[in-house]
Amino acid sequence: MKMLEVLDIAQKVASTTPSSSTDSPKSLSSFRLRESSYPYCTFPKFLSLPREIRDRIYAYILVSGEPIQPHLCTQGPNISFHDDNQEAHNAIYLRTQITLTSHQVRSESLQIFYGENTWSYGYDTAIYLERLSQLNRFSMIRHVMLPIQYKNEKSVQKILRNIHDNLAAQEEYAWTMKKNKFAAKLGMWGMKTELEVLREHPMYNVLWDVGIFLVLRKLSTAAADKEKENGNEGGGRTLTLRVSWTAWFDESDKNKYPRLLWFPKVVDGMGLKIEYLGSHEVIGDRSVGTWVGWMQKYQNREAKEIDREGTRGVERKEQVMKKALETYPEMMRMGMPSSTNYYRKRCEGGIEWFKVV
Ligand SMILES: [Zn+2]
How far does the centroid of ligand 1 lie from the alpha carbon of residue 80, in Å? Predict the structure, then answer.
């Protein structure tokens, strides 16, 4: 880090309220301008600053004023994600340069980057969180926002069936990975890049609504052990979500939103128990749907538990979808379209079509 830049930031940070995300620059162009006008010099005492000041400097640089919507970059050859909510394609890259300074700065600043930013749902949020699990960083995530669109309750079974099929694809993917590891040991495999392997993951090739529930499941914590202690076998998974008004999702409430009731039904089918916390504020455009927010501080357990669960391998679809299969026995006999298409924007321009079979 350049000394003047650090001092400049430190001064700015000192004169503003702590950890307020609105202080973050909307774009990094101002940073770049400053960089080029200063002579190159270093600030070796950065690590002698109190941790609190360092954290505030990290937050100033790393925390975006808006939620970050990860997009798996199509420009390869390495795995990298950019932020769809930023105009500059390399905004995250520029923002996170400080994390490469030293081992200590990296471990401190990554905590701030993952923990203080809000992550918003997009096509690649599921695979992004999956990637963070692979890197053992998932537990640092503290805030996730998910859009829930208005839908007819008739869509419940179809979404559940799609989730079921995605979980089946995940089991197959895990099995292929295992086989390939074995083949690689024998020197028979290894032609695919890490990026290519990741792009084959079912969390990447996912329909919009399915991805939302895969993310929610990932964010949920298994209460199974706790329930067992209380003498209840099975348990389940719990999740606390912040919503505008809890009544919207409550079938028995007169203020319910009929076109949101599909959401708790799918959640229930996946064996998730959700507690809704009303924030009494409306976020986003109420004409298309609503947002729900997941915050680590409201959950029963530390996210570290989720990282540990992740190492236990893929959950079996029969287990996850037990409730859905009981409630909708006809679900598996449903006539499904042979494939569904959707597209993502390519970083180079243009679009890329995907087919979910
Ligand atoms: Zn990109």
Answer: 7
